[in-house]
Amino acid sequence: xxxxxxxxxxxxxxxxxxxxxxIYKGFMKTPxxxxxxxxxxxxxxxxxxxxxxxxxxxxxxxxxxxxxxAVRVRLExxxxxxxxxxxxxxxxxxxxxxxxxxxEATRARATDDELRAMEKLERARRLEAAxxxxxxxxxxxxxxxxx
Length: 147
Description:
The chain is mainly alpha-helical. Helices cover about 75% and strands about 0% of the residues. It is built from four helices and no strands.
């Protein structure tokens, strides 16, 4: 059987190939497929993501510490009379004290975020070391839903 090679047929064929490639690429990004078919790439991605998250959280905490230090220095200068805000300035002793309290709360959250990022990285490394694979069809029920 012979198909005519018209422009329309070629475009349809190329669209089908593009659709097939898109479906394949999407399927290979799912943990069900990737953990079985490309485990090295899958775990490299998990560990790399965990490392990047941990680095970003650590940098964020460092920036918050530097900001807190700068605000504390400005408050000390204000109290010693070395710094005098311009009339109508938004900077005052009260605003600096509020900023310090806010920075302390934000730094506490940033420390927690950094801890969670390190836990995520360790979890990815444990999964890789254990050779974990996600089930292909369905996951067994977990927790209270288990019969």
